[in-house]
Amino acid sequence: MQRYLLSRVIQSIFLLFGVLVVVFFLVRLTGDPTSLMVAKEAPAEQREAFREAMGFNRPLPIQFLDFAGDILRGDFGNSLHFRQPALDLILERLPATFYLATTALLFAIVIAVPIGIIGGSNPGSAMDSLGRALGLLGQTIPNFWLALILILIFAVNLGWFPSFGRDSAISVVLPAVALGFGSMGQLVRLTRSAVLEIRNEDYIRTARSKGISQFKIGARHVFRNASLALVSVISIQYSYLLGGSIYIETIFSWPGLGNLLQQAVDGRDFPLVQAIAFFISFFVIALTLLTDVAYALIDPRIRYSS
Amino acid sequence: MKRIFVLLSMSLALGLIAACGAAQPETVTVVETVVVKEEVKVVETVEVEKKVVETVEVEKKVVETVEVQAPDKPKGELIVSLSTFPNSIYMPNAAERNASNVANQIFEGLTWVNDDGEIVPALAESWEISEDGTEYTFKLRQGVLFHDGTPFTAKDVVASWEAGKDPSNAYAYNAEKAKSVEVIDDYTVKMTTEAPDPLFLRSTLSKDWAMIPAHYYEEVGLEGIEKHPIGTGPFKFVEWVKGDRISLEAFEDYWDEGLPKVAKLTFRPIPEESTRIAAVQTGEIHIANRLPADEAQRLLGAENVKVVRYPSDRVYYISFNNLTSGKGTPIEDKLVRQAFNYAIDRQAIIDALFNGYADLSTGFMTPGNLGYNASLEPYPYDPEKAKELLAEAGYPDGFEIGFACPTGAYTNFEQVCEAVGGYLNDIGITFEGGEIQFMESGKYWDLEANKELPPLFGDSWSTTDGEALNRLEGALGADASYAAWNTSELQDYIDKISSTVDDEARAKLYSELHQLMYDDPPFVYLYEPNTFEAINTAVQNYKPRAAEDYFLKEVFLAGAE
Fold it and tell me: Could A15 and B10 be called an inter-chain contact, meaning their C-beta atoms sit closer than 8 Å?
């Protein structure tokens, strides 16, 4: 178990490093941000001075080493636009992003799991059709489109919810639904198919032949076994929600990290883009690692086969 | 392995967003198919025209009823959207319009440019300019208080200059335009500039400097001012919840009596324009700024919302390059450049891509600019004439030349370039490499600054001073970073304009230069776009300005309690 844990941690560190390399060089493919940061009227010397001060005139590998070294010391550099440490800006915005992603995930689970179980247990029923429809819609409707439609219907036409911001407790509802809808679709589908599959297992037939009630079979055997599959999917979905809220946060002007990232990308605010990408990747990787470890603890097959 | 893939694809996605990102001062909107657009166009145009007329009428009515409705003391909360997250609301560090629009309410300068474009007294009551145009003596207004209750005097002007010059400010160079600032007595200040600077009163002292209390700057430094700005403006700072709102409230001891008229002023950043439109419909905000034309038109039937349209001081153009890549090519010939201006049906482009809401450009001076030469008509669409001119220049069958345009920078600009390319093809011009070179805007501007773009390239330039000097100095001449074209005659004009402080004399120079740049065009002039805003009908006395700069002290809300 220790060996497994160690190898996963080392893998994760390499992965994080890989993400850093990719982000660092991809961001720089778009040229240096001098033309955006310095007024167009500014004389050439001032542009050069800015480049010099920001270190953009040095060779890329050296810039990267500096960047990686600074990160090890916990220094993510200053945002070019905000002229503040990128880390401070991120910490300001982080809670809102976690709150939104968590709410979205809860929404997805609360809707998806019961429908998936009932539908999977009664294939062909009305609930099953509903589940399959939700699964299909959830996976095909683009969330930014859904976001706009939700605003149009529930904020503009009905006036039930605010159209943007995080002013009151109900502000989270529309963004969470828009963000969690895709995950909900995924979860409905997976719960349903897991339940369907388990229903045909030998141990279910055995349980049935022993005369155990349908409800007890469902609760003790089907759901328990299905939940094993769900745990890993849910954790992947959570990391999607944390990292994938860029458009949703922007549309709802939700004061989170995704909204900040959108503007940082627009303005080619390198240090901020890098720092946010690092943080999001860090959470995703950490979440994956935790899930793997938890999984290995629950299911011995995993830790032995790897 | 699957997870590694997931992560890599995520970071790839991040990178891709980065790649297509770059500043989009205006929004890029998806163009519908031509057929649909044409069907819709007529209806929309008619409606909008009607609506604009209605809007004007509504505003007239408002003017008549202002005296009746305006509250005797500040009332209600005015909520205004911002399309980006401001970096700072301390004026010398406020990076773009959204940020400076918040700063405009908190801080004031010595002068102000009123809605008619005239320089009027603000914190200075009067001034004298020396014969050579480099020495200014200001009499300061007495009885002005800062938000912390201390009186505004001459030493505060010096401190504000010093604070503004701090190199950590994004716009430190604005304060550096004054060589010295001296206290003569408590209410008299003398300033000198290196050379005569026609924009010093109009721009530098009206909108670029923020007067701050000297004692406060000494105590808390720039960092403290950034955190809690204190000025003399009509509104004082309350709080800034990052990413969510900036709250201001009426300053009850404001020197201009009876102002401001709203008790609270709140700015809400909403980057997505569809959401700004939704929020103004629900009444969550009162003013939705920077809307694309087609989105704004969705609001035409909406209750409680009126759409405001005004020309913006930005010129879109295709630049010729005679400094580097265009040397020795046919575009050096004036007839060829005239031919290009005749060859393009710009009205058709405006109709198809901007629903007709843009004005044809006649040069670098726009209708509101000082010295705008109103006698000039936009080049008409005349492909026959264009071909004749080309033949006269010795290119009856056209020629091949390089042409580049930026992507992701301006609304529909890629399509504009495609259209321009098509019209040029019609008169026999072909492009190097067989097509227009489209480049991501960040990279494009780097190349432009290094003068490495091909002989023909598209771009745009705005100015916010009410005159074209920045645009001229930026896009023309031998020294400017982004310039690609220069002649000694043009350079002479620019030098003369930039050293003439007298407005009348400068206006005459602008007017002559306008004519010169029309006859011997360094650019294919395309269009000047319109700005759209949506405002709640409760908002009264709001006057949009071409530079999109907000001064909200006279705005009030009908029925505010």
Answer: no
